[in-house]
Structures are given as C-alpha cells and as structure tokens.
Amino acid sequence: MLPFDFEFYQPETLEEAVHLYQTLDQQGKQPMFFSGGTELITLGRIDMAYTEAVINIKGISECNVMQVSRDHLLLGSTLSLTKIEEANLFPLLTKTASEVADHTARGKITLGGNICARIFYREAVLPFLLADSQLFITGPEGKKVVPINDMFQGQLKLKSGELLVQLVTENRFVRAPYFSMKRRQQWETGYPLITVAALKIAEEIRVAVSGLCPFPFRSSEMEETLNNRSYSVEEKVERALSSLPNPILDDIEGSADYRLFVLRHLLLDMMATLERGNT
Fold first, then answer.
1. What distance in Å separates the CA atoms of residue 196 and residue 179, rounded to the nearest whole number?
2. pTM of this prediction?
C-alpha cells in the first residue's frame, strides 16, 4: 500500500493524456504518467515519490506498438519487458532486458518505465544508445522525433508534460553482432553491479555501461580506444578504463575498486566475443 491517495485516469489518446497532464499540473496535483507502476510503488513506499494524480498510458494504442518493417523496428513504450523478451525482435535488447529484475517483475516493468526510471540502472536504454535509435515523444509543444543520443544524457531529458511514446531502430543495428553481460555481487536476481552491452557495426565496437556510475552511459572516448588497432586487447581495455565518466559508484553493492575490477573483465570478455564474431 502507498501512504497517499491519488486520482487515477486512463486516457485513450495521446492528446487526451497530454491535456490531462496540463490540467492536473495547473491544479497542483503533481501528475505522473504511469505504464507499469513498479517504480511508483517502490519509491512511494519510502517517501521518494509522490503524486495526487496518475495518468495510465497503457491503453493508448501508439504506446503498445510492436512492428517490424523493411527498414525499422518500432517498439511502444508501454510494452512489458516480458513481451519484448518473448518476441525477440532485437536480440541485444532481449538479452539485456531478460536480466532486469526477475521474471515476475519483468511482466510489469515496461520499456519506457525502465528507460525513464529514477532508479539509476535503466539497463534497457543501453541497446538503443548503441543503435542510434530515434524517440517519438509527445507533449504540450506537440509531437517530435529526436535521436536518443541527443535526449538521453544520463537520463531522458523530458520536459514537463512530455511522454515517451515509441522507440524506432534501424534493422541494420537490430541484426548486428552483440554482447550483453550482467554481473551481480549478491543473488541471481538482485540489483546489478555492472551491465555491459555492445554492438559491432562495420568492424567497429560500440559499448554502453550501466551500474558503474549513477547513470547509464555510452562513451565515444572508450569506443575510440577500444577500436584502436595499434593497441593490444589488454592495452585497449586499460586505456578505456582511464577515460570513464565520474563519479564511480561506491556503495553496499560494491566498492568503486571492485566495480572497476568487474568492468575490466567484462570488457575483456566483450572484446574476445566480438572479435570472434560470436554473440
């Protein structure tokens, strides 16, 4: 149970959802878009989230799309991680999403909910950062399509009243060789320590990381180093570790030194896997 009451709305269109948000915001009700509810329940119980009005967008058709065309994969933001895993249309996303929480939770956690979460892991964003995906966003200023790497800087920079509707990814990225590995320090389905995801495009490796810093990231500096053919694999990894963003997390899940130790070995595994051409 949550320690506060709230009004519950179920709009049928994007326009209705945006209008509702504006109206409720003007009334001072701190409205919240809702698609799975796991974060609201988790954070609301410990007084880290509060709203007087929940707008459930799961009934909006555009948010539930799962479509493959000749050139693109289109995924709606309210698709559950379980549905994405079962469809297996984007193997890197399937592998990454299948290691979020446990099976029961993945049936409730949505793609957009994970990407827009306040909990800093947000692993589902990693494949889209690597694939230069496009975001379909709507809000008070209308609809727009923007590159994810412009909108996601540690977190998705949505304006007040905006919501993520869909993610669009070119098929050439969907079919590319990939690597995804999560390491946990505690139990099999506990919070992750480090997650590394990678794609190999035109013989170049792209890499993104979650759990090292208080935000997921893709680093052009790391990629440049990892693709420098003048270095040995070990040199590539050591030099890549010297160009990490800050701060490095140091918490109950693992010290900063231990996280770097784990990341070093994951990067070595990644390089070996992708250089062999395996997934």
1. 8
2. 0.93
The Cα–Cα gap between 224 and 211 comes to 21
Instruction: Specify which residues 197 forms β-bridges with.
Output: 180, 208
DSSP conformational letter for 228: -
d(CA 76, CA 200): 25
Residue 38's pLDDT is: 61
Q: Which residues contact 34 (CB under 8 A, 6 or more apart)?
A: 40, 54, 55, 56, 57, 58
Does a cis peptide bond (omega within 30 degrees of 0) precede residue 247?
yes
Q: How far is CA 119 from CA 17, 113, 114, 191, in A?
A: 24, 10, 8, 11
- Bin 47: left if φ > 0, else alpha if -120 < ψ < 50, else beta: left
Task: Give me the domains of the chain, ranges plus CATH numbers.
Answer: 7-56 (3.30.43), 64-173 (3.30.465.10), 177-276 (3.30.390.50)
Taking only the tens place, the pLDDT of each residue in 210-268 is 999 999 999 999 999 999 999 999 999 999 999 999 999 998 888 999 999 999 999 99
